[in-house]
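Q: Got a minute? One more chain.
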Amino acid sequence: MMLTVENLSVANGARVTFEAAAGQCLGLHGPSGSGKSLILRAIADLDVASGQVHLDGHAMHDTAAPAWRRDVCYVPPVPSFWTTTGRDALPHGVDVALGLGLNTDRLDAPIAELSSGERQRVALARALAPSPKVLLADEPTSALDASAVSRVEAILRGYMAAGGILVLVSHDADLLGQLSGGIVDVEAT
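A: Always. Here it is, folded:
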């Protein structure tokens, strides 16, 4: 399995080219405002961009959006929910959420009562549970304490060990260093 991004250019002028293979993590690095999130959203087919994105030789623009988004899943830094509880947001079960340290009491609490870090972990569990081929994780640990970061790192390592491709945006240099097999610098033009 291979994710290929060729001359992908987003609204602020940032442009990247890279390849990521099954089991690999590629980190996107750059200052705030450089376009890292825009690049992830473009790869997920959520924002307009120019260039080419292929997964296993299939072009994003030749693939129906729902099919692409099943295989290529974006996790935003500040997730949104259209459900009442965390459990309701997890149609594929709660196993991943439990692995991320969320207990059943918290999953049954109203989303509005969850902390930023708990909502972040519910969003990550929601994205990982159906086992997408590519996970685009945008600052997945920004609101987490050290213990929760360790759990997220372990879950992401398991995802990659199972053959998933992880494209990670993080200002946490330690997390990028621990997980990524390569770094792509992103700079706005």
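A: Strands lie at 2-9, 15-21, 25-29, 50-55, 58-59, 72-75, 134-138, 165-169, 182-185.
Q: Perfect, thanks.
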